[in-house]
Design a protein that fits this description.
The complex is a heterodimer of chains A (421) and B (374). With 421 residues, chain A is an alpha/beta fold. Chain A is built from 14 helices and 15 strands. Chain A has two domains: 242 residues, Rossmann fold; 149 residues, Rossmann fold (3-Layer(aba) Sandwich). In chain A, strands 7-6-8-9-10-14-15 form a seven-stranded mixed β-sheet, with helices on both faces. Chain A has a five-stranded parallel β-sheet with strand order 2-1-3-4-5, with helices on both faces. In chain A, α6 packs across α7. Chain A is globular, with a radius of gyration of 23 Å. Chain B is 74% helix and 2% strand. In chain B, strands 1-4 form a two-stranded antiparallel ribbon. A two-stranded antiparallel ribbon of chain B has the order 2-3. In chain B, α2 crosses α11. The two termini of chain B are 29 Å apart. The chains are: A alpha/beta (421), B mainly alpha (374). Chains A and B meet through α1, α2, β2, α4 and α5 of A and α1, α2, α4, α6 and β4 of B.
Amino acid sequence: MKSRKAKSGAAVLIALCLALAGCGTDNNKAASTDEAAQTTDSASSSSGGEIKVGILHSLSGTMAISEVSVKDSEMMAIDEINAKGGVLGKKIVPVVEDGASDWPTFAEKARKLISEDKVATVFGGWTSSSRKAMLPVFEELKGLLWYPVQYEGLEQSPYIMYTGATTNQQIVPAVSWLLQNKGKKFFLLGSDYVFPRTANKIIKEQLKVEGGELAGEEYTPLGHTDYATVIAKIKEAKPDVVFNTLNGDSNVAFFKQLKDAGITSKDLTTLSVSVAEEEIRGIGTDVLAGTYAAWNYYQTTDTPANKTFVENYKKKYGEDRVTADPIEAGYDAVYLWAAAVEKAGSTDVEKVKNAAKGLEWDAPEGKVKIDGDTQHLYKTVRIGEVQTDGQFKEVWNSGDPVKPDPFLKGYTWAASLSEGK
Amino acid sequence: MRSSAKGGVGMQLRTWTSRRLWLLAVYAASAAVLFCAPLMLSDFRLNLLAKFLAYAIVALGLDLIWGYTGILSLGHGVFFGLGGYAMAMYLKLAASGGRLPDFMDWSGLTVLPWFWKPFESIGFAIAAGILLPALLALILGYVTFRNRIRGVYFTILTQALVIITTTLFVGQQAYTGGTNGVTGYSKLFGYSLASPETKRWLYFVTVGVLIGAFLLCRFLVKSRFGKVLRAIRDGENRVRFIGYNPAIYQMVAFAISAGLAGLAGMLFVLHVGIISPSMMGIVPSIEMVLWVAIGGRGTLGGAVLGAVLLNSAKSTFSESYPDMWTLFLGALFVVVVVFLPKGAAGLIGQLRGIGRRKGRESDERTSGVRNPAV
């Protein structure tokens, strides 16, 4: 007994020493400069002819399938910029971390990137949950996060740049388009988490004022794969449109079972906001052809910048790879940050934020502009129809880039949604 | 302790005191290292270590029921999470400053739900963070142990508890924050959680709580109560025939273990700044058991060691090899399972045993972990 105790005690001691030694070595020097670095500028990240930036996506776990592609496009953008001479004459060096599809891990790694690696900025996140987990860290340490995915809006952190669409650049125009072209009776189907719930809350308000009708609203847990009940409910409700905010694997199950139930895209219009080229590849074009999606970018979007972007992406990562909206938004983020740094002449977060205001760039999706007030992008809204080759055919676009309005202040019917802020 | 009654009393006593001295020295040195850590580590690393120490508290509780009582719980994530949520609710209300927490607002609530109200008081939150998990464990224990449900059946029930709880928390977005969990805190007792001083303070609190938890477990394990627990592990029916009621002991041990997990969850939230259902899911619940298994089941020091070592390894691997760290971690598990069946604490024993064969023999005689408990 005694000796066993003693041994385990000794083991604890040794482990602690190891852990401390492991941690301690590379940090003693960093610790002394901590205070200075935190308060004023990120001089250390831009010293020595290099600028460190963080890349923080899930490289393992359930979200890896989506996020790895975004990481790839961000790395590609960094390579391209470095090939042209870097930023401020310095090379961009990415520090890659794995968020592991786990929200507390995102917070931990974000903290590590800012306070240990002293990166100039971080590109990362996919799920709203991961963004919400990182947000307090960026606000506390005054770092800057570039978040590349469309999301549910109602957020505006001074330390986040949102390069994906907010609701008025995706969901709201999509609902209007459906009401005008496809029918009035809406069935809302979503995964049970914050994005679909918030999106549907907005849609319900919008339907009330734009003359739509709610035929049903269903949520299934993330990763849910049995849609027999939901499909039965859809059949009974006879909606004109299913507005689909399902995420991930559930889309595969839902669309396959919908097809098995004998409902084709001719009988029922479905519009998805989380199904892009990458997901089509996974679900199968035979099942999805004829359904709609709302995004700001498709691989088929016809701009000169997109031609080179798609070409380079395929050349770098393989012919079978596809580009999609978040992949493009991640790519944009790196270029926009680099442009802001050039303009500011510094990697200091406050200076970069200031320089970013009103910054324009010819992105693959067309012209984008950083809105200084909200730190979101002006983006063109595009509705596309899935073709048999797995690509989208654009059936409608907003013409000009739409001003971001994360709190939907420009819509009187949305007043009740944003009164908390 | 009373084994030195006859024969070589002097020798027994001598080894006993030397071991005791050595043990004391080890403990004192461990504590000293922990208390000096802030001098050696950067704020970020200290924060990480604090998180690992919070994990070590869960590991202690798990070891109490798994290593000593032979009950394998794959549901400790729930108890950990409940503690975390209790603290998170207080912090969220403190940060919202009288307004409705942001996620309730998105989800369409207009008034604060009644069960959130008491969490405005930190005292209530702390009490709830420990007692709620303990109570839940007591109830689960009452319906299972009393009906002599044990072994793998009990383990499956704890997994069911995990699924029920996470589904409930994800589904009730308006009341729990859904998959996002609860995050965005600012103050504890009026001190900013962001300031390095508060963080250092919280680190010391965690070290203190860990030492307290360790002493509590040590006391329990050494007491008559602990002997009964081990007897239950090694032969539940015999214990029953002798006249003890194993169910009561199991329930109490399970509740204490859950309370410790809740306590750890509260500390975790203070260090990490977020609690979400993903922290109480199946994977973390199993991970917690792994810390104990790898550190050395049936030794309290081993449990602490496992939690700290394994999480350090996880962080280090994932920072050095973000693309393939999971493989390294897997390899580590395989190595431990194949070569160190008694965990890392067992390794120290083996190393010592090479030098002192006699000691090793006596160790094997007394080691109770030979029989798999499940």
